[in-house]
């Protein structure tokens, strides 16, 4: 049985399998997007900015639950890659508006293609119906745990020493 360690130990429970698969999935996804010059920490931020076009650095920091200085570092990286631009917000000159560039939108399209390949490979042991059920169940657990939809917990300040 593939899920059994050595001997007569029982199969690992969901509380073990979730982080085991999560770490495996994160590593494989990072490998898939590395040729694009991106890391997972960039992808979540690009995706969020693309869905929140009228956003500021402060909005991003609030949504991700991190210090603004953490977002500035990530935005510096994305700006250096030509994927985002920051402008003085005409409504409030104290804020910097964040926008995807054309290159950023193209990169996000390529990331989306890599993600679909990644998801198909990762979940190939399941039927499409089972995949939908799994996604529904995991979303329910994430909501019950108070996790922000679409924001990976690795962005939070208490995990900022790692690489989101």
Automatic annotation (TrEMBL):
Highest taxon above the source species: Bacteria
Q: Where is the HTH marR-type domain?
A: 1-143
Q: Which InterPro entries match?
A: HTH_MarR-typ (IPR000835), MarR/SlyA-like (IPR039422), WH-like_DNA-bd_sf (IPR036388), WH_DNA-bd_sf (IPR036390)
Q: Does the keyword Zinc-finger apply?
A: no
Q: Which Pfam families match?
A: MarR_2
Q: Kindly indicate whether the keyword DNA-binding belongs to this entry.
A: yes
Give the SMART domains listed for this entry: HTH_MARR (SM00347)
> What keyword terms does UniProt attach to this protein?
DNA-binding, Transcription, Transcription regulation
Q: PANTHER family, alphabetically?
A: TRANSCRIPTIONAL REGULATOR SLYA (PTHR33164:SF64), TRANSCRIPTIONAL REGULATOR, MARR FAMILY (PTHR33164)
Its recorded name reads MarR family transcriptional regulator
């Amino acid at each position: 049985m593939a899920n059994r360690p050595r001997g007569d130990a029982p199969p690992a429970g969901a509380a073990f399998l979730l982080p085991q698969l999560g770490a495996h999935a994160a590593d494989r996804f990072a490998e898939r997007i590395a040729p694009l010059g991106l890391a997972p920490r960039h992808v979540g931020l690009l995706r969020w900015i693309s869905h929140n076009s009228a956003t500021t650095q402060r909005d991003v920091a609030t949504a991700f639950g991190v210090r603004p200085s953490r977002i500035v570092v990530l935005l510096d990286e994305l700006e250096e890659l030509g994927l985002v631009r920051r402008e003085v917000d005409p409504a409030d000159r104290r804020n910097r508006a964040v926008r995807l560039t054309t290159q950023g939108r193209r990169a996000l399209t390529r990331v989306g293609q890599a993600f679909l390949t990644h998801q198909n490979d990762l979940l190939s042991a399941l039927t499409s119906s089972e995949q939908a059920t799994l996604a529904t169940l995991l979303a329910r657990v994430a909501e019950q745990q108070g996790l922000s939809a679409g924001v990976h917990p690795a962005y939070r300040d208490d995990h900022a020493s790692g690489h989101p």
